[in-house]
Amino acid sequence: MTDSILKRWDITVEELTQVVDQNPSLRGMLLGYLAEMKLEKLWPRRTGVSDVSKHDDHDRKKKGDRVVAYKGREFIFESKSLQTNTIRKTDEGWVGKTQVDASDRREVILPDGTKVNTTCLLRNEFHILAVNVFAFEDKWRFVFAKNSDLPSSKYKGYTEYQRNHLLATLVTVHWPPVPPFYEEPFTLMNEML
């Protein structure tokens, strides 16, 4: 068995906790990768899933954090987290925002063949957005939305055509989920089959 990261780095749980608590960008990065792992653990619970794989993080041409083979079709899931400074408790539950964009500016090709240099993700670049809502109540839960149901960019620097094909970079998320978000992804995948 491999030694734990604590043993390999010769640090204590308290030291790791202190570093994570003092560095929000590190906390965000760790939560993001942990969310991908937690997301992957959802699949064995359901029949119809034959495989779960992960794209190379450095391949800018392939978006998506997990590829799920479900009932003979591959579905690409993009995993995102809440921005903790946007979270608030309401009478109905929780509300916050998630940043839905690429980590780096890149050139994308729109359906008409034109190119745009952007951090926006493309409509239909992945199938389902999975947002971990751990930050609402410190519980590992997700909400899911079809890419086609996500809001478009409103940035005035893009043409109307470009805005229609680029996703908004900040999306509101609720718990309990409010459409276009749902508590589980299988209904959405079945709709797309």
Describe the structure in your own words.
This protein has helices at residues 5-9, 13-22, 24-40, 134-137, 160-165, 186-192; strands at 49-53, 66-70, 73-81, 88-89, 94-99, 101-109, 115-120, 128-132, 142-146, 170-175. It has 193 residues and is α+β, with helices and mostly antiparallel strands. It starts with a helix and ends with a helix.
Please trace the helix and strand order, writing H or E for each element. HHHEEEEEEEEHEHEH
Strand order of the largest sheet: 1-2-3-8-9
Which range best describes the helical content: under 10%, 10-25%, 25-40%, 40-55%, 55-70% or over 70%? 25-40%
Distance between the termini: 41 Å
Mean pLDDT: 91
Shape: globular
Instruction: Sketch the major β-sheet.
Output: 5 strands, mixed
The total count of strands amounts to 10
Strand content: 25-35%
Question: Brief description of this entry?
Answer:
This protein is an alpha+beta fold and 193 residues long. It is 25% helix and 30% strand. It contains 6 helices and 10 strands.
Question: Secondary-structure blueprint of this entry?
Answer:
Blueprint: H1 5-9, H2 13-22, H3 24-40, E1 49-53, E2 66-70, E3 73-81, E4 88-89, E5 94-99, E6 101-109, E7 115-120, E8 128-132, H4 134-137, E9 142-146, H5 160-165, E10 170-175, H6 186-192
Parallel strand pairs: 3-8
Antiparallel strand pairs: 1-2, 2-3, 4-5, 5-10, 6-7, 8-9
Q: Tags for this entry?
A:
about 190 residues; about 25% helix; alpha+beta; 6 helices; three-stranded antiparallel beta sheet; globular
